[in-house]
C-alpha cells in the first residue's frame, strides 16, 4: 500500500514472524495508513513482529510514535518485536536522539531479525 508522502507498507508472513516492510518517507500525512497496520498485526497468529526499515530514508515523530505504539502492543501480546536495518543515517539519528535505540531491539538485517525471533528449544 502506498502512503500520502510516497512511502509504502507491505506485510509479509514468515514461518515464525510477521514482517512489516516500510520503504520511502513517513510523516504526519501517513498516520492514517500506518495506524491500521498494528490492528492487522494483532489479528495474526505469530510469535514475533519484525519491522524492516532498511528502505526508509526519512521518518518524523509520526514514525517514531507508531513504532512505540507497536512496541507496546507487541509487549501486551507477549511477542518479540525487532527493528531490522540497515538503517538510513536519518532514521538512525532519529533513534539515537530520542533514545529509541535503547528501548527497541534493532538488528543490522532482516535475516538477523528473523533469526532472533525464532523459537528457542
TrEMBL record:
SUPFAM superfamilies annotated for this entry?
SpoIIaa-like
Gene3D superfamilies referenced in this protein's UniProt entry, alphabetically: STAS domain
Q: Identify the residues that the record assigns to the STAS domain, covering every copy.
A: 7-117
InterPro entries named among the record's database cross-references: MlaB-like_STAS (IPR058548), STAS_dom (IPR002645), STAS_dom_sf (IPR036513)
* Coiled coil stretches, renumbered: none
For this entry, the protein name equals: STAS domain-containing protein
| Species, as recorded | Streptomyces cyaneofuscatus
Question: What's the source species' lineage?
Answer: Bacteria, Bacillati, Actinomycetota, Actinomycetes, Kitasatosporales
Amino acid at each position: 500500500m502506498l502512503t500520502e508522502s510516497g512511502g509504502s507498507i507491505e506485510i509479509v508472513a514468515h514461518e515464525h514472524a510477521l514482517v512489516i516492510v516500510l520503504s520511502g518517507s513517513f510523516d504526519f500525512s501517513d498516520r492514517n495508513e500506518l495506524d491500521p497496520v498494528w490492528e492487522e498485526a494483532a489479528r495474526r497468529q505469530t510469535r514475533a513482529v519484525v519491522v524492516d526499515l532498511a528502505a526508509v530514508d526519512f521518518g518524523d515523530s509520526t514514525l517514531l510514535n507508531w513504532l512505540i505504539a507497536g512496541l507496546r502492543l507487541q509487549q501486551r501480546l507477549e511477542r518479540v518485536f525487532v527493528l531490522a536495518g540497515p538503517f538510513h543515517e536519518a532514521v538512525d539519528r532519529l533513534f539515537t536522539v530520542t533514545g529509541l535505540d535503547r528501548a527497541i531491539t534493532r538488528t543490522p538485517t532482516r535475516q538477523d531479525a528473523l533469526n532472533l525471533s525464532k523459537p528457542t528449544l
